[in-house]
Amino acid sequence: MPFPIPILSDATLTLRPHRASDVGPVYARSIDPLTREWTTIPLEYTESMAAEYVAAISREQEDAVSWALECDGAYAGSLDLRFQGANSGNLGFVTAPAFRGRGLMSRAVALAVAHAFDDLGWDVVTWSANAGNTGSYKTVWRSGFPPPIAVPHLLAHRGEMVEGWISSLAAGDPRVPAGRWAQWADVAARLPGVAQDRPGASTVPGD
């Protein structure tokens, strides 16, 4: 059965279905250098591809819920909650360049995780990203995701399997950080592929 796309909000941030007016902003964030570095969005991405993408995810899907972030009346990013079977799913997200560094995606993740556990009744939500994407990990760390483990050849990225970081949060786990970010930054520094913390980087493959 397709997953509905509920409207979620926390006062100044709204998660809503994508709409036609998001095509331009989706195209702009998809050709942004930082987005290209951390995602598998095609390097030859076009505005027509963005229009096809928005049309596909703006309706109910069999295996995912896709939201657009809206802040101050503008598109601020996209977040996917993807069902992977066994009463669980995984997160993917990308922040529009103009809205990076404001903590919006961390708030969106908190809303999506609450929906997964409290409304959908899932048991586990998983996050993964290319090794070194500390900005993406910090986004989910704020919702209680524990320090990631590094797995060689975990993710497909531009024609090769690359090392990835992965972390999971269970329904009964606290949804707040277990300690200061400095503690987990030290953990990340010991993992392969560490890179400078870059807020708002994405884990969304192929959008």
Q: Could you describe the 3D structure shown?
A:
It is a single chain. With 207 residues, the protein is of the alpha+beta class. It has six helices and eight strands. It has helices at 23-30, 33-38, 47-57, 104-119, 134-141, 181-189, and strands spanning 8-9, 13-16, 64-71, 74-85, 88-95, 124-130, 149-157, 160-170. It has an eight-stranded mixed sheet with strand order 1-2-3-4-5-6-8-7, with helices on both faces. The longest helix has 16 residues, at 104-119. 40% of the residues are buried. The model is unreliable at 195-207 (pLDDT under 50).
Spatial extent as radius of gyration: 16 Å
Mean residue pLDDT: 91
Instruction: Please count the helical segments.
Output: 6
From the N-terminal CA to the C-terminal CA, the straight-line distance is 23 Å
Helix and strand topology:
Elements lengths: L7 E2 L3 E4 L6 H8 L2 H6 L8 H11 L6 E8 L2 E12 L2 E8 L8 H16 L4 E7 L3 H8 L7 E9 L2 E11 L10 H9 L18
Parallel strand pairs: 5-6
Antiparallel strand pairs: 1-2, 2-3, 3-4, 4-5, 6-8, 7-8
Helix pairs in contact: 1-3, 4-5
